[in-house]
Amino acid sequence: MVIGMVGLMKLPFLTATGTSLGAMLLPVGILGVLEYHRRGNIDIRAALLLAAGLTVGAWVGARLAQGTPPALLQRGFAVFLIFVAVRMWVTAR
Fold first, then answer.
1. What global pTM score does this model have?
2. What's the number of domains the chain is made of?
3. Structural domain range at position 63
4. What is the CB neighbour count within 10 angstroms for residue 39?
5. Among 17, 29, 36, 64, which one has the highest count of C-beta atoms within 10 angstroms of its own C-beta?
6. Are 14 and 70 spatial neighbours (Cβ–Cβ below 8 Å)?
7. 70-79 contacts: CB < 8 A, separation 24 or more?
8. Is 75 a member of any domain?
């Protein structure tokens, strides 16, 4: 989502990142969560622990990103994407 907003919509990297976080909040997943819960396929304890970690991580990451030059953030994100792509390529079956 961030790549699309930066490349297609020409949004600044920090704005695209913040916008994607806003889009991923509760409204996006609630219907899926309700359906998985209805069928007994959610580990509530694990979900709460993950949510707590994600909440703290998103807050710390957002604070750090605000003081980091945008070009450095973009390059770091690009390196991360390359790492993920290589890992997917190597582990593909």
1. 0.59
2. 1
3. 2-68
4. 8
5. 17
6. yes
7. 70/12, 70/13, 70/14, 73/13, 73/14, 73/17, 74/6, 74/13, 77/2, 77/13
8. no
